[in-house]
Fold this sequence. Notes:
The protein is an alpha+beta fold. The protein has one domain: CATH 2.40.50.100. It has four helices and nine strands. The protein has helices spanning 29-35, 82-85, 89-92, 117-125; strands at 8-9, 14-19, 22-27, 38-42, 49-50, 55-61, 65-69, 74-79, 101-105. The strands form two sheets. A six-stranded antiparallel sheet has the order 1-2-3-9-8-5. A hairpin with a 2-residue loop joins strand 2 (14-19) and strand 3. The model has no long low-confidence stretch (mean pLDDT 97).
Amino acid sequence: MNIIENLKYTKDHEWIRVEGEEAYIGITDFAQGELGDIVFVEVETEGETLDKEEAFGTIEAVKTVSDMFMPFDGEVIEFNEELEDAPELINSDPYEKGWIIKVKISNLSQIDDLLSAEEYKSLVEG
């Protein structure tokens, strides 16, 4: 299981790479392993401003469909369109090519509520 040190994480198994007032969001290596082969990603919230904990899309694996939740208030400014034709990028490269959305962060102080790599590791290892 790969947990990247310089990223932030949520209890919902999403990773966040903050770049100034914007952030890339995807699901963690642990999450993609639990879901299995990812066959479809749906994000219909591009251009919308969502609140923390609101669902921004769904991810479909062979056996299940899961909602993905905003880790903070923000506007969904971009969807990784490569996932339309190759959702398996989330399985093969969850932290780079498998990013799901890019968000303009509305409230930077909410970043402090996210988990560090160490805290996330403790969460998944129980």
